[in-house]
Amino acid sequence: MTNAKIRRKRSKKQEEKIAQEMGGQVVPGSGAIAGMKSDVVAERLGFRVEDKYTDNKSYSMTRNVIDKIRREALSSGENWLLQVDLHGGGPTRRLAVLDYEVFLTLMEELHDFQTSATDGTGSESD
Fold it and tell me: pTM of the full predicted structure?
């Protein structure tokens, strides 16, 4: 099997894993077919995901990559997420990159949820 085929197979497997974890769907032919943008769409969570994989110890995150996924997400009214798997140099590190404002919103929602669960106003039972 050629290196290109191995990379495609690995990438497809990673995209399927992300889609399953986020309750989303892999975009068929992502990037290869006009109109099929991003790698994974998790509509329930409101995210469009660009997936990157490297066997290196580092990944160069460029403004072009961020702008691309951001445009694709904004065009469909979703948030963007760049998911990177770093496989080189030790155990795999799975990273998520998103807009800081979205991060703050998520942290606020998590705090509100935790507060309501502990003060009895949430739907959690004792």
Answer: 0.81
